[in-house]
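User: Structure please.
Assistant: Input sequence and predicted structure:
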Amino acid sequence: MPLGDRDVGLAGALGEGAVGLHLPATATRLDYYMNLAFGAVERAQEDGLDMVLLAPSGAAGGRIGSRVDGLLVIDPEAGDSAVPGLLDAGVPVVTGERYLGPASGPSGAVVCDNAASLTALLDHVTERGARRPALLAPSGSSAWATALRATAGSWGRAHGVTVTLRTVPFASTPAEAEAATRELLAADPAVDAVICAPDGSAPGVLRAAAALGRKVGGGGGSDGDGRSGWREGSGGGGRPGGSGATAGHPARSGARLLVASCVDGTATRGAAPPVTAVDLRPAAYGRACAELLCDILAGRAAPDTVRHHAWSLEIRDSTGPSPAHENP
């Protein structure tokens, strides 16, 4: 849904008492960014500021800077030609996630520990029996995408496990995720867990699993007492078990497949089965970004302030039900 379709106070024109909001070009079709924007709007209004949605291509930074009090730049891509001008606009700038490009840094940032959230997902599917996890990793040069790709490699090296990586568009549709999953499982049928990064695309992974006869969920690898996870006596010690597939031994039709997502939302909560996901709390994140910008504008926070935003792991039937675990 386009941002303008909901009346939450997004300003229609630039003017005094306003802050600008720059989102990735694909944001208007992602649930995550819509919720983030509405949270930012609500917090800005508490300080009497309107929120102006900037065109994805951006405008000349100096011209924008002369007409707003500050800027929010969310998930800035190092390759986004609009971002350097916004960072040099002459007004305070807060980024949602760090900017990895060559331009001057923002006045402040609100960041998530994206490496920790993917680590939690990989640890979880391993504990539930996965031996060959895979990641549908987002393309692009944002801090989020870069951290996920790097963490897949570092986690695999630390655990002696190969995390199969498939790069997909940053804003993959369910159809694109379905095609990528089909290709992934055809190339490596022993994959027994697929973690899907892009917001809203997990239903495509489920459709691919169903089409290939793979059973999604955590129940298939449980022992008689209902536990799933480590299987003893395989390869000389406790190893992740329960999938029925090993390297060199393709999974048969009906073999279990665990599915999880790096971004929670309506698509993961409403899926059948509901999908385990990282809840990045986007409305609260947008609010936190706007609050830091308001604090910098009001002199309540020093320049270069970095604040941290908490996430939670919501465990659902796609990997086996369990209470949610919140990160430190």
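The chain is about 30% helix and 20% strand.
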